[in-house]
Amino acid sequence: MANLNTQSFSSLVSNFATAVQGAAASLVDFTVGAVLLAIDEATAGVALWLQGLILQVAALTRAATSNGPDLDSWFAQFGFARLPAIAATTQESFGRFTPTNQALISVGAIAQTADGTVQFTAIADTTNAAYSAAQNGYVLPAGQASVNVTVQCSTPGTAGNVSLGALNTLGTAISGVDYVSNAAAVTNGAAAESDAAARARFVLFIASLDAGTLQAVYNAIASVQIGMTGIIAENRQYNGQSQNGYFTAIINDGNGTATSTEIANASKAIEAVRPLCSTYGVHAPNQLNVTISLTITTASGFVHSTVAALVQAAISAYVNSIATTSDGATLPYSNIATQAYGVAGVTNVTGVLVNGGTADLSITFQQSFRAGAITVS
């Protein structure tokens, strides 16, 4: 938005007085308590209020300066909406001390944190072998101590991203079940699309309104859910063989992979905008696990184990951040040491091995890098 020539209360009062004095034939009284000064200040107050309204309206008429609900209402004029929050899901272990009789964990059963602020509810999951559609729940057979149940956070967003073992309290009394626990940290909850991300996707949306373009396909993939991205290999089959009129879409849900449901949803979105007479395939990336080992030397005054943990986290984040393009991607061997040196307290890095070697790693467009075991000695 262009810079507007706004005025403060004092400048409005001063300009009023200057205009009146300039038009008067004799000196006008603007001392404290004078009637004309009172009129001047009252007028300046109204002008300041009107100026504020004008600035607010000017901000609301543009996506670049609107925020929150105002931005949503601006988007709604174009039939565009921000992507909603994603509720975290995980596998929760429901167990007992005496596995005598069969137990049933019904859909809707609650596991929660000790203080009850975060609750997860058991949901139907036909891919889970323990789930019984007939009984609408998960069967814990006689003689078995525990069973893994698919649960989903009751509150969409990042509130469900809890640490290992945090879901340790039964929120629903279940006959034959004594305790619950999550064996892994929960990390797949996502907040609703931010203002900045929605604005960026809106630009892609506008560019895609002529369906049948590359931008239309990218927008279709990005609009499936929070964090989903894709790469398009034009005139290429999934195996890399050339085929005119065919394109391969590799989608990524933000975790370096994609579920069968996400692939189906992306396919449906692409089908709505694909060019006439074109064919395509939608696939999840094949993850290449990257194992890394290295030895660091730390400066005096630093705790070696603490620095090592920070190096491990930095390298893991770097590996997972490498984006694959239609030409593939490369993980430069030398960058591993660079990430380590970027951590405060590291004075030397030696013995770097990437997947057991000392060379760059390269992948094709069908793959994605995923950090595996990172060992920092």
UniProtKB/TrEMBL annotation:
UniProt KW Signal keyword: yes
Occurrences of domain Baseplate protein J-like barrel (ranges): 96-189
Keywords of the record: Signal
Residues spanning the signal sequence: 1-19
Xref: Pfam families: Baseplate_J (PF04865), Baseplate_J_C (PF26079)
Ranges where the Baseplate J-like C-terminal domain occurs: 290-377
Superkingdom of the organism of origin: Bacteria
Record-linked InterPro entries: Barrel_Baseplate_J-like (IPR006949), Baseplate_J-like_C (IPR058530), Phage_Baseplate_Assmbl_Protein (IPR052399)
Protein's UniProt name: Uncharacterized protein
